[in-house]
Amino acid sequence: MIQFNNLSFGYSPKKLLYKNLTLEIQSGSIYGLLGKNGAGKSTLLKNMVGTLFPVEGSVMVNGMVPKTRKPSFLQTIYYIAEDVYVPALTIKQYKNLFAPFYPLFDSDNFYRYLTELEVSVDGKLNKLSFGQQKKFVIAFALACNTRVLLMDEPTNGLDIPSKSQFRKLIASVMNEDRIIFISTHQIRDLENMIDNVIIVDDGKLLLHASVADIADKVCFKTVSEIPAGVKVLYSEKMLRGTAVVMENIDGDDSGLNLEQLFNGVTENPAMAKQIFSTN
Ligand SMILES: Nc1ncnc2c1ncn2[C@@H]1O[C@H](COP(=O)(O)OP(=O)(O)OP(=O)(O)O)[C@@H](O)[C@H]1O
User: Fold this and answer.
1) Which residues of the chain have pLDDT under 50?
2) Residue 16: its pLDDT value, please?
3) Where is the ABC transporter domain (predicted)?
């Protein structure tokens, strides 16, 4: 479990980005972290891995304090940054150098993931294309078998087949002890994969809800007229009617449209709060 307890964080002491953030992230779940540019997504991930740390309050990852960066903590968490960096080493050299830091590293699976993601194992890593480097890092991260896996824009730069392969791999490595936490703008890449959604804006937590809770509280419809007497979180004129995200008063099961949900929550946070705070 990851617990943010009244966490405040700012890059400058005079201007806090997060103020009193309290949030609990459960094991056994895949989280999608969404937010506009500059909303504070990467900052949140860096607080979890301990490269940034709170000004006030705390963050605990499976009972450990990230900022101490103890080996016993670092071997349980893997963070894929948005911009990957790979040294001028072969895949084998890289594995021999870095895998020993992760006691649960699975070499057979590592090569299997590379094959499934179609990353060539010959030559130096820095000669691979950006997308191939990204896939190499994903394969390595998955093979580390850490209890916490944080990924910042993992599908950025991946081609279409690789994105679906990525989703399959994530589903295959998930278990009840693990937390997989993905920050992204590529909303479509997350649909059908995540079971919890977190939306932040300007350092504020606008939404933390399970996909089941979202389906319970709102429905996604295309209507000819915007319905009256019901909370409409978001509407958008389409070719055939108006797409709406509205309060789910009839218990409809209309699936999830993360993009529309995101637009509704960020444009209308007060209404989102009202809808999602009801039981
Ligand atoms: N090293 C830094 N020093 C000062 N301010 C920073 C630093 N890194 C980020 N910020 C600021 O903190 C805020 C949050 O940045 P962050 O990178 O967490 O956003 P993000 O949601 O990940 O954005 P994006 O989607 O564009 O990657 C932004 O206003 C950004 O300018």
Assistant:
1) none
2) 94
3) 2-227
Q: What is the pLDDT of residue 192?
A: 85
Pocket of ligand 1, candidates 14, 17, 80, 82: which has the most ligand atoms within 8 Å of its Cβ, to mutate?
17
Can you give the pLDDT at residue 144?
A: 98
Cβ burial of 209 (10 Å; 0-12, 13-18, 19+) is: buried
CA distance 153 to 136: 14
Closest atom of ligand 1 to 35 CA is 21
Enter the pTM of the model: 0.94
Q: Determine the pLDDT at residue 191.
A: 84
What does the pLDDT read at residue 279? 65
Q: Where do the structural domains in the chain lie, given as residue ranges?
A: 2-202, 210-277
* Distance from C-alpha of 23 to C-alpha of 7, rounded to nearest angstrom: 9
Ligand 1 near 42 CB (within 6 A): yes
* C-alpha span between 73 and 218 (Å, rounded): 39
